[in-house]
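STRUCTURE:
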């Protein structure tokens, strides 16, 4: 069982959803990004998504895209992402790398899998890769016992859900909206039904991402999902900070607030309301 799976299982045993936080490695610089990732964990994030900055982030909205651009301009490379992952693993944290597929293919799929496993990473989230095009990654991840997290959307057909959950390992990523990343004023009305459709076809945890930015939104999503994924809100906290020290404080504080929000959703999770696919109502 990977560290990610362990963290998700531990959260479930506590009667709550897990909190999953995203930040790109190298943003705003390498040293600060490591402190930010550590601060997220200190604030209560269960699983960290370490972003691999990419020049063509098609799924990302302007906030995350700006962070990736800053990281690339700072000289961040794939080796730096692996080093940041190793830092987290060395502290006992659970970490996945969030990456578009091109950098992995360029690095070498087998080599990337081997180096990620050596760094203590649990696996990859690959937003632009579908299981039917992931043959090399399926083989490499299996060889190194790495998690494979693929995405599903509200538009996903039943057949697409079945194909995707069969290939996933660790958890299934339910994208709550059709669109790019970014904070939103309200959570998605489509997300609960998507989670229910996925749960009907797998026992894997289902974690919801895209749009959660406040403790109240985190609590709402925690009421029906196994994990709450937050990215743009953490990035915005860094962008708005006066300097590196203030950024670390802001990220840690946001993690604490979101973790409290997730835990406030305990009652519905503990009573099983969130696990009833036929009774889901209104990231």
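SEQUENCE:
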């Amino acid at each position: 069982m990977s560290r990610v799976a362990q963290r998700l299982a531990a959260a479930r045993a506590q009667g709550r959803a897990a909190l999953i936080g995203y930040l790109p490695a190298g943003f705003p610089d390498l040293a600060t990004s490591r402190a930010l990732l550590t601060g997220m964990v200190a604030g209560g994030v269960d699983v960290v998504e370490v972003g691999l900055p990419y020049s063509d982030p098609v799924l990302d909205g302007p906030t995350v895209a700006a962070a990736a651009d800053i990281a690339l301009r700072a000289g961040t490379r794939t080796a730096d992402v692996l080093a940041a992952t190793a830092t987290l693993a060395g502290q006992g944290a659970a970490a996945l790398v969030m990456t578009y597929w091109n950098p992995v293919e360029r690095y070498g799929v087998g080599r990337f899998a081997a180096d990620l496993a050596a760094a203590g990473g649990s696996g990859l989230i690959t937003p632009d890769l579908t299981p039917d095009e992931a043959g090399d990654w399926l083989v490499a991840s299996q060889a190194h016992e790495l998690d494979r997290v693929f995405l599903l959307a509200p538009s996903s057909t039943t057949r697409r859900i079945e194909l995707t959950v069969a290939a996933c390992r660790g958890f299934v990523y339910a994208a709550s909206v059709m669109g790019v990343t970014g904070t939103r004023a309200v959570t998605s009305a489509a997300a609960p039904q998507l989670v229910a459709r996925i749960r009907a076809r797998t026992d894997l945890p289902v974690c919801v991402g895209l749009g959660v930015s406040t403790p109240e939104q985190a609590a709402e999503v925690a009421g029906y999902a196994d994990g709450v994924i937050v990215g743009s809100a953490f990035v915005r906290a860094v962008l708005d900070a006066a300097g590196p020290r203030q950024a670390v404080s802001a990220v840690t504080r946001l993690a604490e607030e979101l973790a409290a929000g997730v835990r406030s959703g305990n009652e519905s999770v503990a009573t099983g309301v969130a696990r009833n696919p036929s009774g889901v109502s209104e990231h």
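REMARK: Residues 178-186, 268-283 have pLDDT under 50 and may be disordered.
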